[in-house]
Structure formats: C-alpha cells, structure tokens
From TrEMBL:
<dbReference type="InterPro" id="IPR024129">
    <property type="entry name" value="Sphingomy_SMPD4"/>
</dbReference>
<dbReference type="GO" id="GO:0016020">
    <property type="term" value="C:membrane"/>
</dbReference>
<dbReference type="Pfam" id="PF14724">
    <property type="entry name" value="mit_SMPDase"/>
</dbReference>
<keyword id="KW-0472">Membrane</keyword>
<dbReference type="GO" id="GO:0050290">
    <property type="term" value="F:sphingomyelin phosphodiesterase D activity"/>
</dbReference>
<keyword id="KW-1133">Transmembrane helix</keyword>
<dbReference type="GO" id="GO:0006685">
    <property type="term" value="P:sphingomyelin catabolic process"/>
</dbReference>
<keyword id="KW-0812">Transmembrane</keyword>
<dbReference type="GO" id="GO:0046513">
    <property type="term" value="P:ceramide biosynthetic process"/>
</dbReference>
<dbReference type="GO" id="GO:0046475">
    <property type="term" value="P:glycerophospholipid catabolic process"/>
</dbReference>
<protein>
    <submittedName>
        <fullName>Sphingomyelin phosphodiesterase 4</fullName>
    </submittedName>
</protein>
Length: 749
C-alpha cells in the first residue's frame, strides 16, 4: 500500500490556518486526527505551538482560542472538544509523539507567575524545580528570557494559564460555570494523572529505552526542600525528575503526575508579594540561590530587567482571581484529598525509614506527601489574600468553601456515609497529624474570617449562611480539641527541641523504655508544628491562639453582632408583615396606607419574609455552634443577648448612625458604617418634593411608571378643567369626584 503524500511543514501549517476560517470545528478536528496519525514528529513539531495557541488562546489573551471556559454541555461543539482533548485523545497523542523526540518549546519569562518572573529578572534561580535547567539566556542584543519546556510541560502550561488569562467575554456570558468544558477537562486530567485507584496509564509512544523521555534531571545542588519543611530524603529520587535507563517504567511515568500538579499550583496559586515568595523558600534553597547569584554575577551577559521593575522592593503581585478561578482551585483541593486518602493503610502508617527498605510504588509515595509538600504553603497564602481582598458580598462563598474543603480531608475518604449521621460524626483521631501539620489553616484563617464576619451584613441570608457554615465545621466533635492540642505543642518552650532524642533508639525488648519512646514522639510532634508555623509565618511570627483571651473577645463581639442582626431581621420581618397587611386589595380603592416613604415595602429578594426566616435560623444555629466550640457559658450568652435586646428599643433604632461633624456636614465613622451595614441605625431620609415626581423605587417597573405618568399628565392637561368643575359640585357626583380625583390632603380641607 502506498504511503500517503505528506506536505511540507510550512504548507501544512498554512493549510491548517486557512481551514480555521472555512471549516467547522468537527471537520477541523477530523483533519487533525488524520494528520497526527499519518505525519512524523518532525513535521508535527512545526505546527504544535500554533495548535496549542489555537485551542487555548494566546498567553496575552488577544487570541481567544476555542473558549473552553464558555463552552457548555448544551453547545454542539462541547463533546467534540472533550473528545479531542481528553487524556487519551488525539491532542495528547500528539504531545506524547513529540515527547519521544525530546523537542523543546519556549515560553517567555514575562508570562510566568509574578514572583517567579521577578526573581529570574533579578538573576535569582526560582525554588520551584519545575523551572530548573530550563532557562534560556538571551543572545547578545536580545532583551527577553525564555523557558524551554518539553511538549507535555508546554501543553500543561498553556492549559493552566488559560484559566487566568484575561479575556473579554460576550455580554451576558461569564466563565464561572462548573459544567464548562474547561472545568470538566481539569477534573478529567486530575483523575487520569492523579488516580485514586490503579496507576497512571503509560503513554502510547516510547523511545529507544522503552519509555517516553522524561524531563532532564535537575541540578543536584538544588534541594527539593523548597516545596516543604520536610527532609527531601522522605521522597525518592524518581519523583525529582531524575529518571535512569534502568529505572522502573512506572517510576519514569510518575513525572507526568508531578508536572501536572506543579504546573497547576504554580500558575493558579501565586497571588502574593515577592517578599512572601522568598519567605517560602527553605534555608537549603536560599543557599543554592545565593550560589547561583554569585555565579551569575561573573557572566558577561546578564538577564535583562527593566529599571525599577521586578525588584524585591518595588514588586507587588496584583490580586485578581475570579470566582471561576477559585472554583477550579477548590476542585483541585478536593481531588488531592481524595488522591492522598486513597493511600493504602500499610503505606500510610509506615515510617520514612521503613520506606527505604520496602518496595513502594512511586505513585503511593507521591500520595503520601502530595498535599503537604506541593500545595499547603501556596494555598495558605492564596486563601489569606482572598480573605483580605475579596469584596464583602455573597461571592465570597466560593473562597469559603475552598478553605472548608481543605481543612476537612476526612470528607474525601471515599466512604459512603448517611448525611444525617455525617453532621454529628466525630473527627477520627487519625486526622490529628493533619491538623497539627496544617495548624495555621485552622487558626490563622479562622481569625481572618472573624475580621470579615464582623464587617459583613449578617441580615442577608447568604452572609448568615457563611457564618453558620464555618461555625458548623469547627463545631465537629473532637476537632476543637485537636486544634487546642496543636496550639499547646507550638507553645512548648524552645529548649524542648534542643534535647531531642536521637532517631535511633532502643525498643523495650532491646533494653530501652516506653518512656523514651513517648518522649521522642512528643518531641517530634512539637518540632513538626513549630516547623509548619515558622515555614509559613517566619521565625519572628507573633502567634495568636485561637482559644486565647484575645480571640475569645473577638468571638464575643461576633456573637453580639449576630444577636443584633437577629433582632434587625425580626424587626424588618415584622414591619414587612404590617406593610403587607396594609397594602391589601382594598388599597386599589384608595383605602390602603398612604405612607409614601415606606422603606420596607420594596425590600430586595434577600430581605423577603422567607429569606429573613432563613437568616434567623442560620444565626441561631451559628450561635449554638460558637458556644460549643469555645465552651461559652450559656447563662452569660443569654444575659448578653437580653441586655442587647433591652438596650435597643424603638427610640434607639431611630437614632442616627455614629458620625463626626466635618466641614461639609456629617461624616460617618467606622462604627457608623457597621451600624448601617447591620441595619441597627439609618439616616431618616425622606423625599420632600412633589409626590408625583418622587424617585422610582427599585421594586417598581421604571418603564411602566414613566408611561403611566405621561398618560396621567396628558389626561390632566386635556380634561383638567372638566375634573375641577366636577370636584366643585356639591352633589353626589361632586363628592365622588373629590374622593377619587382630589389630593387626599386637600380632600379633607
């Protein structure tokens, strides 16, 4: 059979570009499938960068690509795209085909995460192993640095970057749906390359050694400890991008899982300052960076850096994650918990020293360290920035649920539980280690959430729900005790660490004692908690206890605000009920309420009767859970709420918000703003102009109001004289005309 006639790469690329504007997506994908199957890697190498840009869009956002974030299941192209981009589909087949030939593709350093870019432009090697041995120094006269990535890294970089690329969406569309093609592909890639069951399927293409070529090994002088506070010896070398010819094929394939995860973490979780980025780096990495900088200073060609940009003193990463971005991060967190929890019990319980003597698959070892080593530090900073910068509205729910998903790994064990039993289920003791190694995720972020909660409108049911969700999670039996124990370990005196027992100790059968064994366990726990806190907050951090006196005062303040919000919701609900009763059907005949300044008739949807009932329910249950968490005295709480209720009588509610006198009038203080947000006080704003020209309410149909006003004005102009004559008569018709046509105030004069 004759071989197919192959076009030259330049003609092939030109034809594909021409087809983009003339053929539908289905036909283009069918053509690409044939080209990927028939053409050798040398010809496919020329079209690969263009194809990636066509699918995911350009890194600068000018080219939209296939708009994966806007492509939903109801679209005709949805299934076509998923079939083409799935892990075993044609596109990934092209990636593996090029991977076997060791081709490289360049990414400008300008598109790297801000802190990484700033470090490179300063001549400092980033701590992330993903960027090691890939920096391409510019030739003489060139001003830009590039990274040389292999095909798999290049594909995953563009896929991950697609989420954060600023795009201009058509009016009425936004990329926040969890059924978009992009969201589904992220889920599919995670399940394929980080499987909870089984192993990662091998690639269909192989090189002369029988496996797809893995990335080149990193420099041995650079430690992997930058990804965590643990010793790098806990993880075997094959996870470090150091494959060998005689290595286990499964070990050579694990690099794809690591690359995918590193790419997602580096691209999606980098919203913090360069100073914070450098604080993340371990002492070993900082020493390597210093050596690298010294070697760079002797090079004739220095990396270009614009004056005043990208320096430690002037750089600040802008904060701009979207709700869609946070939802994808939550998907990553949930899957990593499920992936880590699928570790076999015997591997989970075995010590690091045992791993060096027993054979363990690379994937199982990866599961053991994936959350702490790869995700914890950067996710902590990402959430901390979200808590501090996100608007005080209901969209914060996405951030909140991401946090709550991370601190509840026991929800993703794969065990099927009854939802009713799950609400009161005790947190198993085996998660105590996770709580200790993630102490700041519980304590520090809870404190930051408190600062948000006291500034939020808790009368809104959606905001009240968020407070209830947090209180419910922390009120799970045994969780508060675990957090308290972790804090006690951190507060152990420093001299405890200076008398640590050696790792090699005698068991009781060998002449040792259980006492020394227990002391060593406690010492290791103290060291683990302190290492975690210092790694994230620095050696000079001022730790505030979650169950300390200061935070207890903040919790009491939140309880007071919750009680105020409950009373405000009740007052609004009662006022709405009265207003609804007054505006009955009889009001159409002029016999209803004539209050033109009623501010409750047009309550927004969040202030409707049903929502206010939910607000009351959420806040009541939040109060119960907070009392359970912090073991508050029920009598004192009742007294606090009753005192608050008696002090806020009707006269107090009519007071103005707290203000100071300024040059141009009253100026709200911070207390006054909180009073307005909580609905405790408000300005007595009344319309004093022509009642017929008062502003249109938010609950009214503006078009209909203007139309009826014009009709009534026209009737007044044409028949005003006749109506005045009718109202001037003293008989029955005159009284009837005055009742329906005259001003209510003038009617009784």
């Amino acid at each position: 059979m004759a071989a197919p006639t192959l076009q030259q790469p330049s003609f092939l690329l030109a034809n594909l570009k021409a087809d983009t504007s003339t053929k539908p997506l289905l036909h283009r994908c069918q053509d690409l499938v044939k080209i990927i199957d028939d053409y050798p890697a040398k010809e496919l190498h020329a079209i690969f960068p263009w194809l990636v840009e066509t699918v995911f869009g350009s890194l600068d956002g000018i080219i939209a690509g296939w708009n994966l974030r806007l492509l939903h299941s109801r679209s005709n192209e949805y299934n076509i795209v998923l079939e083409f981009l799935k892990p075993s589909g044609p596109m990934m087949k092209l990636v593996y085909k090029l991977q076997a030939e060791e081709y490289k593709y360049e990414i400008p350093v300008n598109y790297l995460p801000g802190p990484v870019k700033a470090c490179i432009q300063e001549g400092v090697l980033p701590d992330c192993p993903l960027f090691h041995n890939k920096l391409q120094f510019p030739l003489s006269g060139l001003l830009t640095l590039n990274l040389a990535l292999n095909p798999f890294e290049f594909f995953m970089f563009n896929f991950a970057y697609c989420l954060i690329t600023p795009k201009s969406y058509p009016q009425g569309q936004q990329g926040s749906s969890t059924d978009s093609a992009y969201f589904v592909l992220v889920d599919t890639y995670l399940k394929y390359f980080l499987p909870s069951e089984g192993s990662v399927p091998p690639s269909p293409f192989s090189d002369s050694r029988g496996s797809v070529t893995a990335p080149s090994p990193r420099s041995s002088s650079v430690s992997f400890a930058g990804y965590g506070v643990h010793s790098p010896s806990l993880l075997k070398h094959h996870i470090f991008h150091q494959p060998s010819v005689n290595a286990d094929p499964a070990a050579q394939e694990i690099w794809r899982s690591e690359t995918l995860l590193q790419m997602f973490v580096e691209i999606w979780l980098h919203h913090y300052s360069l100073e914070m980025y450098q604080k993340l780096q371990s002492p070993q990495v900082k020493l390597a960076l210093l050596q690298y900088r010294l070697s760079m200073s002797s090079m004739p060609c220095q990396p270009y850096a614009q004056p005043g940009s990208g320096t430690c003193h002037t750089y600040q990463e802008p904060f701009s994650p979207t709700e869609e971005h946070v939802l994808v991060v939550r998907l990553l967190v949930k899957h990593l918990h499920a992936f880590s929890n699928s570790l076999k019990p015997e591997q989970l319980s075995s010590s690091p020293s045992a791993h060096s003597h027993t054979h363990t698959s690379p994937l199982e070892e990866f599961k053991r360290v994936v959350v702490q080593r790869f995700v914890q530090q950067k996710l902590y900073l990402f959430l901390q920035n979200c808590f501090g910068h996100w608007p005080l509205d209901a969209s914060f729910r996405a951030v909140l649920e991401t946090w709550l998903s991370y601190i509840q790994p026991w929800r993703y064990t794969g065990e099927k539980t009854n939802p009713q039993q799950d609400q009161n289920r005790t947190v198993p003791d085996k998660w105590e280690l996770f709580v200790q190694e993630n102490l700041l995720m519980y304590t520090k972020l809870f404190q930051v959430f408190l600062n948000r909660a006291v500034r939020t409108d808790l009368v809104n049911a959606k905001n009240a729900l968020m407070v209830f969700r947090v209180a419910k999670v922390f009120a799970q039996p045994n969780l508060a005790e675990m957090i308290q124990k972790g804090e006690q370990l951190f507060l152990e005196p420093e001299h405890v660490l200076h008398h640590r027992q050696p790792r090699g100790y005698l068991t009781p059968s060998q002449g040792g004692s259980y006492v020394s064994s227990k002391q060593r366990v406690v010492t290791d726990m103290v060291f683990r908690v302190k290492s975690h806190v210092y790694a994230l907050e620095g050696q000079d951090c001022q730790y505030k206890q979650m169950f300390g006196t200061e935070l207890r005062g903040a919790v009491m303040k939140l309880i007071q605000i919750i009680a105020q919000a409950r009373q405000t919701a009740k007052r609004i609900s009662d006022h709405s009920s009265v207003a609804t009763a007054n505006n009955s059907f009889m009001s159409w005949f002029g016999m209803g309420s004539s209050d033109l300044n009623n501010t409750f008739n047009g309550a927004e949807a969040e202030e409707s009767g049903e929502c206010l009932k939910k607000t009351h329910e959420f806040l009541d249950r939040a109060l119960e859970n907070l009392c359970q968490i912090f073991k508050l005295n029920q009598g004192q709480l009742t007294q606090l709420i009753s005192n608050l209720g008696s002090s806020q009588d009707d006269g107090n509610c009519k007071q103005l918000p707290d203000c100071i006198q300024g040059e141009n009038g009253l100026i709200l203080t911070d207390l006054g703003r909180k009073q307005i947000i909580s609905g405790l006080r408000r300005f007595d704003i009344r319309y004093q102009g022509d009642p017929e020209l008062q502003p249109i309410r938010s609950y009214e149909n503006a078009l209909l109001v203007r139309l009826l006003y014009r009709i009534s004005s026209l009737l007044n102009d044409r028949f005003g004289g006749h109506m005045n004559a009718l109202c001037s008569r003293q008989d029955f018709l005159g009284r009837l005309g005055r009742h329906y046509l005259a001003d209510p105030i003038l009617r009784h004069n």
